[in-house]
Amino acid sequence: MAPRTNTLAIVALVTGFCCNIAAVITGHIALSQIRRTGEAGKGFAIAGLVLGYASIGLTAIMLVVMVFFTAAMGAFVAAAVGATSSATSSESSSAEPTGQTGAAYFDDGYLLVGTGSTVVDLYIDPMCPFCGQFDIANGDTLAALVDDGSITMRLHPLTFLDHTSQGTEYSTRASAALTCEAAINPESTLDYLAALFANQPAEGTTGLSDDELVALSGGSSSIADCVTGEQYHAWSQQNTDAALAGPIPGAEIASIQGTPTVLIDGSQYDGPIDDPQALADAILGVTS
């Protein structure tokens, strides 16, 4: 008569597919009983042990993987939060300026000098050769009209010729540097404008370096941090977008089509750009 099969051996085999700890326990007990009683089922008990230990090993591996995965995810989330915080901080620090600082009127989009009753708006691009010709011819005349109280001059430095400076965005950098001077050393605003055009680079070149732009300042306070920190780049570019898209508040023209553009109390000056007397007569209302 064949020996009966050990019951725990069968239990070990069955639980090996669903309960690893029970399979290991019952498997060992079954083997012990089989050795004492000579019952059958040793193979079932061994199979249950193999399944139980394999399942325990797989569970342990999965736990280790989960621990490492959790740690990695924690590090990733921390890095992402840090990056977001840094980006938010950067955005905050580079937020476009508002209000007035020195001669810079950020909300209105211009640099203002003088207190005269006649308002002259001058739209220029630091890389524009015609703007250079205009300033060399008329800069002293305009400065004199500012000094004697005849005019209020509003400078609008634009950046639309960035593409002509071999990727250095010279128009933006120079316009922002002029804004730095106006904000930090307002009394030197027109002197800095004159220096920009006296040292104007040719179109198609990289333009002046940031250090050279800083060196043009004759003000009492350094503009180095303002220039190298790109403090007014975005503001200068936004002003350009607004000028090209329009409308121009209080002006007879809808938008700026080119530089230099001169508005005298909102009316566009269409005289010669290299005749200071003609410009002064137009500003002062002198007719021939």
Which labels suit this protein?
single chain; 288 residues; 7 strands; 54% helix
How would you describe this protein?
This protein is of the alpha+beta class and 288 residues long. It has ten helices and seven strands. It has a seven-stranded mixed sheet with strand order 1-2-3-5-4-6-7, with helices on both faces. The radius of gyration is 40 Å and the shape is rod-shaped.
Main β-sheet: number of strands, strand sense, barrel status? 7 strands, mixed
H-E order: HHHEEEEHEHHHHHEEH
Strand order of the largest sheet: 1-2-3-5-4-6-7
Let me know the average pLDDT. Answer: 89
Would you count the extended β strands for me?
7
Binned strand content:
5-15%
Helix count, per DSSP?
A: 10
Give me the secondary-structure category. Answer: alpha+beta
Helix content: 40-55%
Computed over alpha carbons, the radius of gyration is 40 Å
Blueprint of the fold:
Layout: H1 7-15, H2 20-37, H3 42-93, E1 100-101, E2 104-105, E3 110-114, E4 118-124, H4 129-147, E5 151-157, H5 170-184, H6 189-198, H7 210-215, H8 224-228, H9 233-245, E6 261-264, E7 267-268, H10 276-284
Parallel strand pairs: 4-5
Antiparallel strand pairs: 1-2, 2-3, 3-5, 4-6, 6-7
Helix pairs in contact: 1-2, 1-3, 2-3, 4-6, 4-10, 5-6, 5-9
Give a quick precis of the structure.
This protein is of the alpha+beta class. The protein has helices at residues 7-15, 20-37, 42-93, 129-147, 170-184, 189-198, 210-215, 224-228, 233-245, 276-284, and strands at 100-101, 104-105, 110-114, 118-124, 151-157, 261-264, 267-268.
